[in-house]
Amino acid sequence: MDASHIIYAQERPADSAAIEHMNNISFGAARFTRAAFLIRERCAHDLELSLVAWDGDKIVGSVRQTRIVIGQVNALLLGPLVVDVCYKNIGIGRELMCRALMQAQAGGHGLVLLVGDRSYYERFGFKPHTLPLILPAPADPQRILICELKLGTAQRATGRVRPMNSA
Ligand SMILES: CC(C)(COP(=O)(O)OP(=O)(O)OC[C@H]1O[C@@H](n2cnc3c(N)ncnc32)[C@H](O)[C@@H]1OP(=O)(O)O)[C@@H](O)C(=O)NCCC(=O)NCCS
């Protein structure tokens, strides 16, 4: 299978059940205790910055982005990124990532944070963050990755990571 027929679109509220199903299969119940989930559960992700991949009438991939604040710096939290197990390794994850980052940049966002595998995400410009962050649950520092979209943003991004519009 190749991915030439896959269509990418902005996520809609109606897509939520299919996305949750994929996330459940790929991440299981353990996802509910993870630092990134604990931030996301307090703030809806931004549909304008979240994308789905369609094969005909079936959703086969998803990436979400949530507006957060790191200390005093506005940023985005990227994830979950998930691709249907039957559609892996044909470039859907890459396409979702590239489109999500392009939209973040076009929207004037300066920094994207995620918790994930460095070996996958470094190809998109992510690297471990060197400044201390306070997350709502422990996370391996090697998995706390940032992609700086506006020069100078990363060096100010330290402190508590919280959803935007929270105290
Ligand atoms: C990780 C994931 C999103 C990648 O999507 P995908 O569409 O299969 O990936 P792509 O086709 O864009 O890229 C495939 C490449 O990524 C590599 N890759 C996939 N998962 C990887 C991982 N966890 N770490 C390192 N490399 C990985 C593949 O080996 C392949 O490498 P190659 O290009 O050298 O052959 C998908 O495998 C998935 O949904 N995994 C389960 C959920 C998950 O781990 N999400 C990421 C954490 S939020």
Description:
32% of the residues are buried. By secondary structure, the chain is an alpha+beta fold. The protein starts with 6 loop residues before the first strand and ends with a strand. The protein has helices at residues 16-27, 35-40, 92-106, 118-121; strands at residues 7-10, 51-55, 58-70, 73-83, 111-115, 127-128, 133-134, 144-148, 159-163. Helix content is 22%, strand content 31%. The structure holds coenzyme A. Coenzyme A (COA) binds next to strand 4, helix 3 and helix 4.
In short:
With 167 residues, the chain is α+β, with helices and mostly antiparallel strands. The chain has helices at 16-27, 35-40, 92-106, 118-121; strands at 7-10, 51-55, 58-70, 73-83, 111-115, 127-128, 133-134, 144-148, 159-163.
Supply Rg: 15 Å
Total strands: 9
In DSSP terms (H or I, runs of 4 or more residues), the helix count works out at 4
Major pleated sheet: 9 strands, mixed
Give the secondary structure arrangement, pairings included.
Blueprint (H helix, E strand, L loop, with lengths): L6 E4 L5 H12 L7 H6 L10 E5 L2 E13 L2 E11 L8 H15 L4 E5 L2 H4 L5 E2 L4 E2 L9 E5 L10 E5 L4
The structure holds coenzyme A.
